Each structure stands twice: as C-alpha cells, then as structure tokens.
Amino acid sequence: MKCQVCRGPAVIDVRRHNANFCPEHFMRLCRDQTQKSIDQFAMLEPGDRVLVAVSGGKDSLAVWDILTELGFAADGFYIGLGIGEYSDASRGYAQRFADERGLTLHVDDLLRDHGFDVPNGSRAAKRAPCSACGLSKRHLFDDAARRGGYDAIVTGHNLDDEAAVLMGNTLHWQVDYLGRQMPHLPAANGFPKKVKPLVRLTERDTAAYCLLRGIDYLVDECPMAAGNKHLSYKAALNDIEVDSPGAKHAFYFGFLDRAAERFAAPTTDTDGAPVTPCERCQAPSSNGVCAFCRLTERATQAVPIEMGRTRRRAKVAS
Ligand code: AMP
Ligand code: FES
Ligand code: ZN
Ligand code: ZN
Fold first, then answer.
1. Bridge partners, residue 195, by sequence
2. CA–CA separation, 210 and 217 (whole Å)
3. Which single residue of 59, 61, 167, 188 could bond 268 by disulfide (Cβ 3.0 to 4.6 Å)?
C-alpha cells in the first residue's frame, strides 16, 4: 500500500477518496479538508477569535488541534455535565490536551454553576438526558462566547454525525430541522456564529488523526446516549458505505448542494421570532424567560435562579 502523494509506505486507506496515505499526507488531508469546509461555507475569517467546545473525545480535540495548526487563535471550552466517571474522565483528557500545548481551556460546571447535573436535571424536568444536555450545552456555549468576546463557537461534529442527523430528519420529514442542517449558523440577535469545520471528515478519520498526532482522547461514548436513534442511523449509513464508498458524503453534501435551499428557514437560533433579553439571565430569548432558565428552575426547584446567575458571573470575571 503506497501513499498516493509521495509513494512512501501508506498507513491508512480512505475508500471514499479511493486513495491511501502515509501519516504526513493523511494529516495534511485532514487539515486541507477542514480548510476547504471553512472556505466553502465562509465559516471563519483569518483574525477570528474562536472558542472550541471540547468534550475530551476525538472529534473536538482533533478540531482544536487542526484549527491551531491552521493558524487560528482558538481557546477551548469544557462543560462538566455531571455524568459520573464519564464526565470526570472527559475533563481530564481536555485539560491534559490544553496543558501539554499551552492552550487555554475555560471550564464551566453545571452542578457548581447552576445547581443541577444532567442525570438529575433531566429527571426533575422530565426531559430525555440528551435533550436536557443539548439544551444546556447550546446555552452555555453561547454564554461563554459572549462573555469571552469570541467571534465563533466551533464544535467537533463530523460527517457521520451530520449524515445521521440528516437521515433522521429525512425519515421523519422534519422540514423545519432540514432547513437548519447547514454546517454554519451566522451570528444574529446576540448569538455568536456556530460552525462545524469537520463535516468533510468521518469518525474513522478523526480517530486516525488523533492516533497519528499523538492526541490522547476519551474513547468511551456517553453512557446516557445508549439507545439514541442517531446511533442506529450511523450504523445503517456505515453498512451502506461498505458497499458504496462515498455514499455518506454524497448524501450529506448532495443535500447541501441541491436540496437544503428548498427547506430554507430563518437561520438564527430563534427561528426569526422577536428576541429580547431573558428576564433572568439576559441571554437573547424569544420567550421572556429562556429555555435554559426554565430548565434550571425545574431541575433545581428550590434553588433561586439569581444565585446561579451571580455565581456564574463571578466565575467569568476571574
Ligand atoms: P455530542 O453532542 O456529544 O455529539 O457532541 C457534539 C460536540 O459538542 C462535540 O464535538 C463538542 O464540540 C461539543 N461537546 C460535547 N460535549 C461537550 C462538553 N461536555 N463540553 C464542551 N463541549 C462539548
Ligand atoms: Fe449529553 Fe450524553 S453527553 S447526554
Ligand atoms: Zn505520503
Ligand atoms: Zn435565561
């Protein structure tokens, strides 16, 4: 097996490109594909201050590494979700990555800063863990970007993630969601822009990239995600990919190129509804009290919201 670029010994085959690569040229491929997504969707400008949401897993550590290699000033942001040993371990991986490279990692913690964690919060609020978790993460990402004056929030979503979400939205004809499947969401109404620069890379690519770059990441998946429909959509797409290399890419990028516009909806977080500051936390909201403050209230019941806000603000100033 020879590298398609230098003819040296190859260590990985990338079937959707019908090519093999040596370590150096595979890592270059990952960086080039990331830069290509950034350019194609005008995700980031050269001087942008970037906040990378890092979970300690392969995708978010890879995107942080690649953006730094591409010359972006990128800080990390980790949220402790209180999911037992999984959260403790994930924070450790994120922190070690930052420390070893002299990068800045900001850390928020749901329990410390807001009085609830994902398992208890989702139970008290009668929401599925992933739903309470997703809502909290989105709110805290926005909040951290605003407080730190960042231009963009970057997440590690990859091609497998996006194709699986697209498959779910298509199977159920969730036309509102189909209108929001673009890998970039522009800044609007006080929300920072949000981008997914890894949409041209698969999970296999990011795992190989981390291995070759010597990036140590948490291999375990979140224990609360077991049974999540997206996992079965990912498995189905992987089966299709075995017989039709490139099918996943064609499905997702074909949608973006030829169909997404037909479902175009307002591209902001509030679906075009009028936005006012949340009465409790001042975050932009289309609903008096924002969804995160309502979740916090249900999840903490007796804990006054004002306390949570004061604690959070105080921490940010430090
Ligand atoms: P997930 O929703 O777990 O598939 O994660 C999607 C993306 O959200 C990851 O690639 C990260 O960029 C980000 N993310 C997930 N968990 C955390 C966390 N605990 N703290 C910060 N960012 C996270
Ligand atoms: Fe959010 Fe698992 S990471 S529920
Ligand atoms: Zn090579
Ligand atoms: Zn609020």
1. 154, 184
2. 8
3. 188
Residue 124 lies in a domain: yes
Pocket of ligand 1 (CB under 6 A): 53-55, 59-60, 77-79, 81, 137, 155-157
Tens digits of per-residue pLDDT, 21-47? 999 999 999 999 999 999 999 999 988
Residue 222, ligand 2, Cβ within 6 A: yes
| Residues near 107 by beta carbon (within 8 Å), at least 6 away in sequence | 77, 78, 79, 80, 91, 95
From first to last of its 318 residues, the chain has per-residue pLDDT tens of 999 999 999 999 999 999 999 999 999 999 999 999 999 999 999 889 999 999 999 999 999 999 999 999 999 999 999 999 999 999 999 999 999 999 999 999 999 999 999 999 899 888 889 999 999 999 999 999 999 999 999 999 999 999 999 999 999 999 999 988 999 999 988 899 999 999 999 999 999 999 999 999 999 999 998 778 899 999 999 999 999 999 999 999 999 999 999 988 654 555 556 789 999 999 999 889 999 999 999 998 744 444 444 344 333 322
From the CA of 225, give the closest atom in ligand 1: 3
Task: Flag whether 19 is in a domain.
Answer: no
| Residue 315 in domain | no
Q: Helix count (H) and strand count (E) of the chain?
A: 13, 10
The whole domain housing 81 covers 41-220+227-270
Closest atom, ligand 2, to C-alpha of 122: 4
Residue nearest to atom 3 of ligand 2 (CA): 222
Number of domains in the chain: 1
Q: Is residue 307 part of a domain?
A: no
Q: Report the C-alpha gap between 37 and 52 in whole angstroms.
A: 16
The CATH number of the domain holding residue 170 is 3.40.50.620
